[in-house]
Automatic annotation (TrEMBL):
<dbReference type="InterPro" id="IPR026992">
    <property type="entry name" value="DIOX_N"/>
</dbReference>
<feature type="domain" description="Non-haem dioxygenase N-terminal">
    <location>
        <begin position="21"/>
        <end position="120"/>
    </location>
</feature>
<keyword id="KW-0479">Metal-binding</keyword>
<dbReference type="Pfam" id="PF14226">
    <property type="entry name" value="DIOX_N"/>
</dbReference>
<dbReference type="GO" id="GO:0046872">
    <property type="term" value="F:metal ion binding"/>
</dbReference>
<dbReference type="InterPro" id="IPR050295">
    <property type="entry name" value="Plant_2OG-oxidoreductases"/>
</dbReference>
<feature type="domain" description="Isopenicillin N synthase-like Fe(2+) 2OG dioxygenase">
    <location>
        <begin position="185"/>
        <end position="267"/>
    </location>
</feature>
<dbReference type="InterPro" id="IPR027443">
    <property type="entry name" value="IPNS-like_sf"/>
</dbReference>
<feature type="region of interest" description="Disordered">
    <location>
        <begin position="271"/>
        <end position="297"/>
    </location>
</feature>
<keyword id="KW-0408">Iron</keyword>
<dbReference type="Pfam" id="PF03171">
    <property type="entry name" value="2OG-FeII_Oxy"/>
</dbReference>
<dbReference type="InterPro" id="IPR044861">
    <property type="entry name" value="IPNS-like_FE2OG_OXY"/>
</dbReference>
<feature type="compositionally biased region" description="Polar residues">
    <location>
        <begin position="279"/>
        <end position="297"/>
    </location>
</feature>
<protein>
    <recommendedName>
        <fullName>Isopenicillin N synthase-like Fe(2+) 2OG dioxygenase domain-containing protein</fullName>
    </recommendedName>
</protein>
C-alpha cells in the first residue's frame, strides 16, 4: 500500500526525540554530523537517516518501495502455500512463521506473520533454500537492496570506528558482506489491531545484531528513551528517511560504549490503527552472528 493512501500520523501524539542525520553530510565526513552520529549511538541507540539527497540513498528508497510490493504479494499467498516454507526455530530461522506461532513476554501468542530470507542464499554464498516463486523472481531486487544497505552501514561503521578511536577498520571487518553468517531479509505483517494501544504486538526487546535500517509506513514502533524509563514514545515515520537502530552486538563490539535501542511495536495511533501494517528493515550484524535484514511491520 502506498504511503499516499494511508491515514496521516496524528499530530497530537508525543513522539521520540530522535536525531535526524543527513546521509549526504556523513558521506562527506562532516565533523559536526559525525559527532551527532556518535552522540545518537551513545545516548539512545536510534536515529533518523535522511536518504533523499544522495544517489545511494534514493536508490535504497526505490528498492524499499519495490520490496513493500513484494511483501504484500508474499503475504497474500494462501496459508497452505506459505506453510510449505515454514522455519523451525532454533534449528533455522529462514522461511515463514505464521500468526500465533510464538508467545510474547506474557505468554500470549503473537499476531504477526514473518518471512526471513537468508543473505547468504541471496548472494549465492550457500545453496539456495526453498522459497515461493515470487521470491525467486525478485532475487535481483533483494541482492541490490542488500548491497546498497550494506554500503550505507559500512559508512556508519567506518565513522563510528574513527570516532571511538578503534584500530583501523575494526568494525567494518566484523561486518563483511560476503561472510557466512545468519544475516537475513525479514518481512513482517501486522494485522489491524483492536487491543489497547499499550498492548505490544512485538514485545519489548533489543536487536541481537549490530545495526538495523528500518523503513516503516505505519507508526506502531515505540522506543524507550534513556532516563525516561516509564514512558514509551512513538517513532513517527518520516518520508525519505530510514530509522537506524543499534543492537546488542554493537554494544559488545564497543565494550559498552554504545547503546542498544529498546523498542516494541504496538497498535499505531489514530486512524492508522485500522490499517494492515507493512514496513521494511535492513540490519547488519557481525560476521560471527548475522548481517542484513529487511523488516516489514
Amino acid at each position: 500500500m502506498s504511503t499516499n493512501t494511508l491515514p496521516p500520523f496524528p499530530s497530537d501524539v508525543p513522539t521520540a526525540p530522535l536525531p535526524r542525520l543527513s546521509l549526504l553530510k556523513l558521506q562527506s565526513h562532516n565533523a559536526t554530523e559525525t559527532h551527532r552520529l556518535l552522540q545518537a549511538c551513545e545516548d539512545i541507540g536510534c536515529f533518523y537517516l535522511d536518504l533523499r539527497d544522495t544517489n545511494i540513498g534514493n536508490n535504497l528508497l526505490t528498492l524499499s518501495d519495490e520490496l513493500f510490493s513484494t511483501a504484500e504479494n508474499l503475504f497474500s499467498l494462501s496459508l497452505d502455500e506459505k506453510q510449505k516454507y515454514i522455519f523451525t526455530y532454533p534449528n533455522s530461522h529462514h522461511g515463514y512463521k505464521a500468526q500465533r506461532a510464538v508467545p510474547n513476554h506474557k505468554g500470549n501468542l503473537d499476531a504477526n506473520e514473518f518471512y526471513n530470507i537468508s543473505k547468504t542464499d541471496i548472494l549465492d554464498l550457500t545453496p539456495p533454500l526453498p522459497s515461493p516463486p515470487l521470491l525467486r523472481h525478485t532475487r535481483p531486487t533483494f541482492k541490490s537492496f542488500i548491497h546498497t544497505s550494506h554500503s550505507i552501514i559500512t559508512l556508519l561503521l567506518t565513522l563510528l570506528n574513527s570516532s571511538l578511536s578503534l584500530p583501523t577498520s575494526t568494525l567494518p571487518r566484523l561486518h563483511r558482506l560476503t561472510a557466512l553468517s545468519d544475516d537475513q531479509v525479514r518481512f513482517v505483517k501486522s494485522p489491524p489491531l483492536s487491543q489497547p494501544s499499550s498492548t505490544p504486538t512485538i514485545s519489548p526487546q533489543t536487536d541481537f545484531g549490530s545495526l538495523a535500517i528500518l523503513f516503516n509506513r505505519l507508526g506502531g514502533l515505540q522506543v524507550l528513551p534513556p532516563r525516561q524509563d516509564t514512558e514509551w514514545v512513538y517513532v513517527e515515520p518520516l518520508p525519505g528517511h530510514a530509522i537506524v537502530r543499534l543492537g546488542d552486538a554493537m554494544v559488545k563490539a564497543t565494550y559498552g560504549r554504545l547503546r542498544a535501542s529498546v523498542y516494541r511495536v504496538v497498535r499505531p495511533p489514530g486512524e492508522q490503527a485500522g490499517e494492515m501494517g507493512t514496513g521494511s528493515l535492513s540490519a547488519n550484524d557481525p560476521a560471527q552472528s548475522s548481517g542484513s535484514i529487511i523488516h516489514w511491520a
